[in-house]
Structures are given as C-alpha cells and as structure tokens.
C-alpha cells in the first residue's frame, strides 16, 4: 500500500516559488492500478516523481509498505527504490546497447549474480513478447517495442510498484492499447501496484481501478473509475469525461424537435435491460433515439442516450417517472423542457 500524506513540492527559482504539488494526501491500495489525470502543469509529474524521490518532497510523507521514504538515509533509499520501478514517455533506453544489453545492464546495476542474468533476460523478454529482438538496438525498434523493453527493464528487479510517467503518450492508439493490455496482464500476473499519470482519459478508462483528477497541484476528485465516469462531481472531471463521451447534440437537430428531450444514463447491469422498450409498451408515448452510446469502463457498461418523447404530457410524465425509477438517472434537457 502507498500512503501519501500532506505532500508538498515547491520549486524555488530566483524570481519565485512555484507550487508543483499542494498538500496532496491519497492512499493507493496494493495490487491496484491507480490513474492520475490532469492537464499540463497540474502537477502530475511532480507527484509521481516524488513517489520514488526522484524529486525530493518539500514536506509530507511517502509511505510505501509501511516505510516512509522521506525518512530514509541514502543506502536505505537505494534499497527501497529497487522495489519501485518507473517507465517513461520517451523510454530512456541506452541507444548504444542492444535490447539484451539494456536489460542485462539493469540487472548488473541491481547486483544480480552473473549466472542469473541470461535466464532472467530471456524470461523478461518472453514476458513482454520480444524474444526475437534481443540483439536489436533501440533505433531498430518501433515505439511500442521500445516501451516493451522499458517495461521489461522496469520488471528486472521484481518491483512491487511500477510508476508510469505518460507511458503511452508517444504511441499511436492501437499500440497504446497493446501496451495497456501488457500493463494489465503484468498487474494481474505479478500483483504489481501500478500508478500512472496521463492526460488521456482513454488510458484511465482502459485499465485503471481508481483514479484521481489533479488541478493546480491538488487532487480535486478521486474514486473508482466507474463512479467518476458515471457521476463526475467536479467541473474538471466532467470536462475530462465529456472528452470521451462527447454528448452534445448538434443544434440543428434540436431545433427541429417538438417533443420532450431526455437524457438517460444506464449504469451497470441496467444498461443491458430493455427499459426503453418497456416504456413504449406501458405508456402511450412514442420515442426517437437521437443519440446513444454504450461505453465499457473495463467490463462494466455505461450507456447514455438522448431521446425525444412524443405524446400527451401526462403520459410523458408517467414515462419519465418510470425511467427515473429504473435508472435513477434521467435529465430533461433544457431545449425542450
Ligand atoms: N523543475 C522545475 N522548476 C520549476 N518549476 C517546475 C519544475 N517542474 C515543474 N514545475 C512547475 O510545477 C507545476 C507542475 O508541473 P508538472 O510538470 O508536475 O505538471 P504536469 O501535470 O506533469 O504537466 P505536464 O504534463 O506538462 O508535464 C508547473 O507549474 C510547472 O511549471
């Protein structure tokens, strides 16, 4: 488990002091994938770099498996860091060394006995699906393959925590998916705790269990990913979610509508029930679905529909009450209200 208590990171320049992290407290459970999202300058890098003391916190505690990293001497910190690995947006591989040598180098640095290096490198390459690239140099690899080497190197010391600093930001969408799948697989296989920072909600949606949203050095909202997608409370979280769900109806579509416009969210198993067709059977209303989408937040569905209901006002109201009772989530849209 990782506990961050009242973490502050200030950067002092000649002219001013900049607050990178402003009194953040958060707990990350063992074995979970925790995502931190925020726009540029929100403090994500500062926060994640404080987690392994790449940046020295100005104040606060970083407690990993019961040990406060900020209180360790340099020898103790070196040992503790072996259990906290990191991967980076731009991979940080040694260009003049082959894939094999890059991994062997990390193992040597961790003082792994010589005889164990070759079998361990072979095992790591298998784990990340790169057994055929042992003799390639980084320049001969695609971005996705480079990140696989980065992941293999990060796993070399059997860490308990993996920090991912915008690990997929330099990759195209399909390569991003395959790297995220690999991260999820190793999280499951090895029980590794993963903390990732990203500005892309897709990444969080794809693999994170819980997430935090950062702004101006602070965490403005945190919780299980599904809950934040289904019920974002803070304006910034809403903004991030809207980027994914994109639920604006084009104005010309609204103009021509005469019925009552409603927006319904179907959460979890209710998304698979036939609430809408039941409504048409029970009440004298007709309906047009104007916009609809079911997103899967990992395995759990989140459906959003915009519909126009047409009929007598009393029947429409009864239909609205029925859907509200079933879904706990119905909004009558202003335009037609
Ligand atoms: N070494 C530094 N010296 C001075 N100010 C810094 C330094 N590093 C970060 N900052 C400032 O701290 C704040 C948080 O920056 P940080 O890089 O942590 O944000 P971020 O969310 O990771 O953004 P990005 O995604 O652009 O890296 C910013 O105002 C930034 O200018």
Describe this structure in words.
Pfam families: ABC_tran (PF00005), NIL (PF09383). Keywords: Amino-acid transport, ATP-binding, Cell membrane, Membrane, Nucleotide-binding, Translocase, Transport. GO terms for molecular function: ATP binding. This is Methionine ABC transporter ATP-binding protein. InterPro entries: AAA+_ATPase, ABC_transporter-like_ATP-bd, ABC_transporter-like_CS, ACT-like_dom_sf, MetN_ABC, MetN_ABC_transporter-like, NIL_domain, P-loop_NTPase. There is one protein chain. The chain has about 325 residues and is α/β, with parallel strands linked by helices. It folds into two domains: about 1-245, P-loop containing nucleotide triphosphate hydrolases (Rossmann fold, 3-Layer(aba) Sandwich), CATH 3.40.50.300; about 250-335, 2-Layer Sandwich (Alpha-Beta Plaits). About 35% of the residues lie in helices and about 30% in strands. It has helices at about 45-50, 75-80, 100-110, 115-125, 145-155, 175-190, 200-205, 225-230, 235-245, 250-255, 275-280, 315-325; strands spanning about 1-10, 15-30, 35, 60-65, 65-70, 85-90, 160-165, 195-200, 210-215, 220-225, 260-265, 285-295, 300-310, 330. The strands form three sheets. It has a six-stranded mixed sheet, sandwiched between helices. Strands 2-1-4-5 form a four-stranded antiparallel sheet, covered by helices on one side. A hairpin with a 2-residue loop joins strand 4 (about 60-65) and strand 5. Helix 3 runs parallel beside helix 5 (about 145-155) and helix 11 (about 275-280) runs antiparallel to helix 12 (about 315-325). The relative contact order is 0.12. The mean pLDDT is about 90. It binds adenosine-5'-triphosphate. Adenosine-5'-triphosphate (ATP) binds next to strand 2 and helix 1.
């Amino acid at each position: 488990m990782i506990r961050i208590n009242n973490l502050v990171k200030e950067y002092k320049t000649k002219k001013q002091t900049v607050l990178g992290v402003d009194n953040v407290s958060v707990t990350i459970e063992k074995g979970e994938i925790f995502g931190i999202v925020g726009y540029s300058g929100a403090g994500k890098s500062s926060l994640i770099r404080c987690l392994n003391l790449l940046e020295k916190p100005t104040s606060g505690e970083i407690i990993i498996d019961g040990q406060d990293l900020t209180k360790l001497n340099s020898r103790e910190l070196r040992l503790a860091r072996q259990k906290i690995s990191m991967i980076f947006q731009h991979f940080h591989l040694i260009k003049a060394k082959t894939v094999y040598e890059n991994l062997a180098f990390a193992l040597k640095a961790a003082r792994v006995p010589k005889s164990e290096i070759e079998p361990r490198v072979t095992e790591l390459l298998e784990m990340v699906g790169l057994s055929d690239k042992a003799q390639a140099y980084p320049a001969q690899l695609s971005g996705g393959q480079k990140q696989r080497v980065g992941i293999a190197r990060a796993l070399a010391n059997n860490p308990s925590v993996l920090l991912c600093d915008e690990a997929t930001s330099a990759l195209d969408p399909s390569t991003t998916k395959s790297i995220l799948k690999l991260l999820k697989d190793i999280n499951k296989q090895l029980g590794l705790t993963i903390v990732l920072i990203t500005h892309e909600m897709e990444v969080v949606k794809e693999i994170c269990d819980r997430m935090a949203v950062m702004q101006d050095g602070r965490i403005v909202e945190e919780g299980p990913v599904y809950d934040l997608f289904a019920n974002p409370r803070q304006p910034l979280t809403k903004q991030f979610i809207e980027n994914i769900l994109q639920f604006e109806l084009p104005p010309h579509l609204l103009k021509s509508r005469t019925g009552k416009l409603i927006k319904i969210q179907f959460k979890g198993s209710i998304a698979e029930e036939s609430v809408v067709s039941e409504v048409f059977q029970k009440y004298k209303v007709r309906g047009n679905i104007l916009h609809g989408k079911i997103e899967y937040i990992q395995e759990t569905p989140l459906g959003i529909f915009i519909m126009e209901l047409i009929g007598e006002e009393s029947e429409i109201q009864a239909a609205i009450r029925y859907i509200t009772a079933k879904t706990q989530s119905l909004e009558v849209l202003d335009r037609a209200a």
